[in-house]
Amino acid sequence: MSFDETKSSSEKYIMNVYNRFNVSIAYGKGATAFDEEGKEYIDFTSGIGVNSLGYSNDGWVNAVTEQLKKVQHTSNLFYQPAQAEFCKNLCEKSGFARVFLGNSGAEANECAIKIARKYSEDKYGESRSNIITLNNSFHGRTITTLSTTGQIVFHQLFKPLTDGFMYVDSGDIEQLKKAADDSVCAIMLETVQGEGGVLPVPADYIAAVAELCKERDILLIFDEVQTGAGRTGKLFSWEHIGVKPDIMTAAKGIGGGLPIGACLCSEKLKDVLQKGQHGSTFGGNPVVCAGADYVLKNIADEAFLKEVTEKGEYINEKVSSMPGVKFVRGVGLLLGVKLADDEARKCAEECAANGLLILTAKTLLRIMPPLNITYAEIDKGLGVLKSVLEKRYAKKA
């Protein structure tokens, strides 16, 4: 297909739920993508944090291909070597007791919700089932995870939503203490609100939340779907803060490009869900697990994570001095760029037209390149961004 044919067929046959850029990605290598005609793009998006090792990483491709030659799928009613190996490594490297594998971050969060509610019902009865999340949060697009998300804009048009969720402001511990009554079984939060504008949640607030949870036997859940898998320069972002949750969810980058969601729990919760109380047909697929295990072995390396931090600092410094940039915030290779005119989408469209793929998060540009992006690719992408910003703000001057 040509680009025009790809675009035409997509618009005719695919439900129109994505606000697509005028770009088609036909193939790629590393952090560089190409369309059908061979036009080159530096990719600062990595599929919204999914392609943690970039396009077509040789080791990842080999791991996936070798597993495809053995078995592509089998029921979770049987044991799977690839699944067992990955889950063992994931639990040992993260320090959690057990994991359930699904296919997405939303599924991982649904599992976390079920664990929290069943733990509380087993111990305290049905009346203790509410879950508190933060305003401006994002936890998924299923009916239940829409309810979990603390943004009213996502609640519109799909009511009635799932009951049992309460929302408080990030940073206001007194508000949280008032809300955390005897009806609450868990508090769920992101350490950095990615979809909410790459907005870090204050570390002292998270520590206070953890203390409150410990006092009241409320479970603490961290949604690490966007911040996990090395994205912030630690294997998981809670390591920056030193506060370990009872339940953690992960997805996106942990699979390196294939669908995966993981819900990990602490020792005290490892037996909460029993046979028949949860499940997934495709969750823990052996091909996905083989790819994920390769990703995990690479990103868990301390030298690799140090480079993620250094690359993030390098990008932050370069972008902060560009025309029209008010500030850059975030951590590691999860960065938000505030522009003087708040026209992030228009700026991202201009970047795409000039060979740079970049995301938005509310009124900010969002930078999430592959974790192994080279400095040459970084500089090439930053060159496009700088050129676009110079033209935009020269016009406005």
Describe the fold and architecture.
- With 397 residues, the chain is an alpha/beta fold.
- Helix content is 40%, strand content 18%.
- The protein has 13 helices and 17 strands.
- The chain has a seven-stranded mixed β-sheet with strand order 4-12-11-10-7-5-6, sandwiched between helices. Strands 1-2-3-15 form a four-stranded mixed β-sheet.
How would the blueprint of this fold be written?
Layout (H helix, E strand, L loop, with lengths): L2 H11 L13 E3 L2 E3 L5 E4 L2 H4 L8 H13 L10 H14 L3 E5 L2 H20 L5 E5 L8 H6 L16 E4 L4 H7 L4 E6 L2 E2 L5 E2 L2 H14 L2 E5 L14 H4 L5 E4 L10 E5 L20 H14 L2 H19 L4 E7 L2 E6 L4 H10 L2 E2 L1 E3 L2 E4 L7 H22 L1
Parallel strand pairs: 3-15, 5-6, 5-7, 7-10, 10-11
Antiparallel strand pairs: 1-2, 2-3, 4-12, 8-9, 11-12, 13-14, 14-17, 16-17
Helix pairs in contact: 3-10, 4-10, 11-13
Strand-residue fraction?
15-25%
- Given the structure, what is the number of helices? 13
- What's the gyration radius in Å? 21 Å
Low-confidence parts: none
Largest sheet: 7 strands, mixed
The percent of residues in helical segments reads 25-40%
Comma- or semicolon-separated keywords:
globular, alpha/beta, 7-stranded mixed β-sheet, 397 residues, 13 helices, single chain
Care to give the gist of this entry?
This protein is 40% helix and 18% strand. It contains 13 helices and 17 strands. Helix 3 (58-70) packs antiparallel against helix 10 (286-299) and helix 4 packs parallel to helix 10.
